[in-house]
Amino acid sequence: MKKVFFVLMMFCLIILGTRKLYAQSIPVGTPVLEDYYRREQLLGKVDSNLSFAIRPLLSKEQLNTQNILNPDSSYTNSAIYFGNKKGFFQILPFSWQQQFNSDHPYGWNDGAMIPAKGYQTLVSSGFYLKYGVFSIQFKPEFVYAANNNFNGFDSGHPDQDLIVYYSFHNSIDLPEKYGNGPYKKAFLGQSSIRLTFGKISLGFSNENLWWGPGINNALVLTNNAAGFKHLTINTVAPIKTAIGNFEGQVIAGRLEDSGYPSLPTTALADGRKLYIEKRKDWRYFTGFNLNYNPKYINGLTLGIIRTFNAYYADVKTGGFNAYVPFFTSYTKQNVNQGVGDLFPRDQITSLYARWLMKKAQAEVYFEYGWEDNLYNLSDFIQSPEHSRAYIFGFRKLLPVNEYKNQHILIGAEITQTSQHTENSIREVGQWYLNYQLLHGHTNDGQVLGAGTGPGGNLQSFDVSWVDGLKKIGIGFDRFEHDVDFYQIAYSPINGNSRNWVDFALSVHGEWNYKHFLFNAKLQQIKSLNYQWILKDYNPGQYYIPHNDVYNFHGELGITYRF
Predict the structure, then answer these.
(1) Which residues pair with 355 in a beta bridge?
(2) 3-state secondary structure of 461
(3) Taken in order 104, 110, 113, 119, is the CA torsion positive or negative?
(4) What residues are paired with 403 via a beta bridge?
């Protein structure tokens, strides 16, 4: 099977090698531009075969534009052609993104930025160079965060609560705070080196990846954490066949440790250690994302994602199958005589679908995944919700009368990573945590998947006015924090009414003016039962007073396109 896979990939490279070349990307999370292209697809102006489930976006042909950074031709770009037009050079946009939290950390999908209170900024720029099949995109990032102190979990809980907290959160590298004092760090950012043959690209990259059809969240890979170094072979545009279109990506990467404990308090007053030191080894992360658009069902995309995460010291002792584990059985019964993996390894599988309805100018999508393999097929049939998480969402454009290019965009999305009630009768694997691979599904201390994190549930609703690159709207979020920790490890008080829940109302906007792109968001958050801190509680009370916290979250970004 592995030899067949290799032969097929080489065949694709040879057959497609004479086709037109693409490589320049719209990095995941690019303000204004990335969502603009998805809206344009709803309007029928972008190829309907493009799934938007494997990003960054790379193909200007499918995006129906000559310059992916300047889709409305609002300025004269500085691109330089040379070598009889075999060569291409362009200065990439300068981006300055800023963020502020007034009371405590809030927000996700902000790449290399960290969870922090106070002011934070990320600056990025660089260049793109292509000659023939070879291309370099160099777009480093620098982050500064004031990283002010705030009241976290350890500021309002006794020793017993801290013991319970660490019993759960020692299984993931997810620091509540990144040390003391300001945080400064430089990253390779959205940089890559590629060889692109037609619709197939091979290369080395540090870019953020987004796998899945979700808009606010995805289960496996998003831009919630900083990008990580990885080798990639991927399509840059859908490959057409007699039965339909295919897109895909295979990666092998390196995940890093944050170096920070879960809480600032790492030991009790009597000297007992709370924080378990993690292995000093980087993690080998590999996986694939493959999707299919049936020939006779226009707009429908069906996809599968599978990833493996293990310490490199273990992987290098396991031979070829440890480096390329994609053909490992999906059930534990068929692996190592029912025992499972021989070394600590975290596996995630998800299935997804997206249906683009061009006539209705709408889309509906979902992703359903499993953090833990089931024992056999019977186990799956009896308990398909075991260690599951899911995302479901939709979007629709409504035309504004008498204004041809203006629309009202309505969207909603649900993210659920907390576990089913099955956890009361059977041990369940929580999303992004792993009791053997103590870093969990993270890079540099942030979850690679849904920004809501382990046991996080989010319901989002948004209404916006849009006109080309311009967008102004209001949004509402309801965010339940760390539900699995609260319900499984940290004994509930008066039932489930004591969850930590955020209600957030936002006003947001995106605007373009010649070379400039602007983005802004103003969000007011009310945190009910913040950090489960009980200020005035007695067992006879149902409602706990004085434990709500208000937080302001602001974002402001300016991008200049050369």
Answers:
(1) 300, 364
(2) strand
(3) negative
(4) 400
